[in-house]
Amino acid sequence: MKTMTCRQLGGACEKEFNANTFEDISEMSKQHGMDMFQKKDEAHLEAMNRMRVLMETPDSEAMKNWIKKKRDEFNALPDSE
């Protein structure tokens, strides 16, 4: 199991997510983002706007590079208890 924070995944806080796969941790981060969106958390809304720019063209090199960088970062992490 590996641990990443909301901030490490492009978010705005230090909430930790624990998962065995990058896909699982990405889904946890996405759910957290939706929760923060519903709460109208300003810091998270700003982070979402930055991500929205990357996601405007999902097949863009910028988005692919961002996902690869985060996946590589996740894979390089040591296993946590």
Count structural domains. 1
Strand order of the largest sheet: 1-2
Instruction: Name the helicity range.
Output: 55-70%
Number of helices: 3
- The number of distinct β-strands equals 2
**Protein structure class:** mainly alpha
Broad shape: globular
Provide an overview of this structure:
This protein has 81 residues and is mainly alpha-helical. It has one domain (2-76). It is built from three helices and two strands, in the order ββααα. Strands 1-2 form a two-stranded antiparallel sheet. The model has no long low-confidence stretch (mean pLDDT 91).
Task: Spell out the blueprint of helices and strands.
Layout: E1 2-5, E2 16-19, H1 22-38, H2 42-55, H3 61-76
Antiparallel strand pairs: 1-2
Quick description:
The protein contains three helices and two strands. The chain has 81 residues and is mainly alpha-helical.
Which features would summarize this protein structure in a list?
2 strands, 81 residues, mainly alpha
